[in-house]
Amino acid sequence: MTIVLTRPRQQQLVAAQGLESAFKAATAWPSDVRIDSFARLADYEPACQQEAGRRLRKDGLPALWKLAEEQSERYRQAAELLVG
To answer: What span, in angstroms and rounded, lies between the C-alpha atoms of 59 and 78?
Structure first.
């Protein structure tokens, strides 16, 4: 997704499909989570996507990589709670 977002004239449909797939997966999450002020992944994921777009436009790819690391850690923690 990062590569596609940094080249907006190429493969725009793929980017939109990837973002939609991430939202669908978050919507299907079987339990509530506690991530920042969010109780559901379906609420957290769109906020993540908006923040990723903002950081990419403002500070470029290095800032997006840092954000992705932070967000992936939160997703990992949510998955660990689900499987116990």
So the answer is: 28
